Amino acid sequence: MLEVKDLHVTVEGSEILKGLNLTVKAGEVHAIMGPNGAGKSTLSAVIAGKDGYEVTAGSITFEGRDVLEMEIEERAQAGLLLGFQYPVEIPGVKNIYLLKAALNAQRAARGEGEIPAPEFMKLIKEKVAFMKMDTSFLQRAVNEGFSGGEKKRNEILQMLVLQPKLAMLDEIDSGLDIDAMRVVADGVNSLRAKDRGILLVTHYQRLLDFVVPDKVHVLVDGRIVKSGDAELARELEARGYEWLLEETAA
Question: Which structural domain range is residue 172 located in?
Answer without folding.
Answer: 2-249
